[in-house]
## 1
Amino acid sequence: MAAHGLVHGELGLNCIHLCVDMQRLFGPGYPWAFPWLQKVLPAVEELCRSHPERTLFTRFIPAEREGDGRGTWQRYYRRWPEVTLERAGVEAVRLLPSLERFVPPAHVLDKRVYSPWSEGRLDHFIAEREIDTVIITGGETDVCVLATVLGAVDRGLRVVLVIDALCSSSDATHDALMELYLSRFSQQIEAASTSEVLVQWR
């Protein structure tokens, strides 16, 4: 999909790069690995390098063992026991090696579900820094990125999706979600390339 551009102007000081779940768990050698991860990683690295102090990484933390979790999450981890911490190991939840070097000054927020908003810590982070814009990268476009985007929209934040820095294990649903974001949320969500974001992020 072609970039639609930053139609609402430059990216100001009250802006953060919110990088969703770029972890080893989704990289080579793990059950949830998806090939796009390596393809978008250089763009994510470039954004982190430009403003490490204004980067926040979220990390999806699986259940400890099979059958753990609340409600349907129990069924979820019975379906995916190989990604539990007991089976995959704590190494799996670490950021990808090339991204760990940005922490600090970059920040890390852990979550047990798709959305980073559910426990209130991200709300506190945003309010404390008077953030009004989130630049979103990472994966997956149609799962954890979706939950992150909708939470930001609900809070009235300007959302910028970096189209060459988002990934999914499904081309079809990635494309469908990008179409949804830009057709149904056009007043709240913008999409731009990494190069355009870097030019406009002062």
## 2
Amino acid sequence: MSNDQDHTVDRRQLLRRAGTVAAGLAGTAAVGAAAAGPAQAAPGDPVLQGRVNEAGAPTTLRGGSLTSAPLRLENTFVETGPDGIPFSGPALRLTPTGRGLGWNSEVGSVSMDTSGTIWAVTSPGLPPMEGNFVEYVRTNANSNELVPVVPQRVIDTRTAAGRARIVNPAGNLDSAGRLLRGHTIQVNLEYLVHLGEAVYGNVTVTGALGAGFLQIFPNPGQRPPAFSTINFQAGQTLSNFFLTGINPVADQISVHAQQTTHVILDVVAFVVASGSVNPSILPTDGELAAADDRARLARRTKPSWAK
């Protein structure tokens, strides 16, 4: 083969290589353009971004890690409310439908009914029962929380300062500050609790002018006639524990005396659902951290009787 022929062959090989490289670059450009374009999905695919999707058959995501979830939903938008508390944007929405999950839904299913209650299928039914166990998920909307507080003296009718939380003192107290026979006072609790459901406390009567009883209840216009929180004799000093609901219109409770007496009220805990307790009266600033520590300990340990 002559030198000219060798050069011709070399040129042909270079041209072939150049064509191969050009084709490869063109393919790369095409892939890059496809990746940069809008999301696409053929009919029947489970999700098409930015549009309403009819999933058809359910989609299953399987993870292979003990520490990582197979699906993460995140919304990085954050705004601050009037009180300075940050709120994040929603990462998931369950559309409210029906009255809950059907008993034949598979275990692990989650839904929300038209009243806003979340339901979950927690376990399969046992023969001869048909269907699975469907239970509502406890949230602030459907469950209460008992919040112990540092004991707070709310009223003490023996002193002017102790009567400051009485909403309607005029005409209901005698010259010594005692609650008059047959009268009812409302006690303001809004500086301690916001939208409270109930209150635990201790009531003391002292300096009563005669034998009688005291009643503690939520609404002043709905006093139950046939009950007593504490019964006492004339001049007796006596205490009793009480639990009562809180007026749903205002954070107040009512106290009615069947006989004129001094009244002392101390509170030790509140029941709240969507409401809250003044953090300044919680046992410690680290209460939430302590609760988290106890929850972690509960997940990793067993009670003494579970050997």
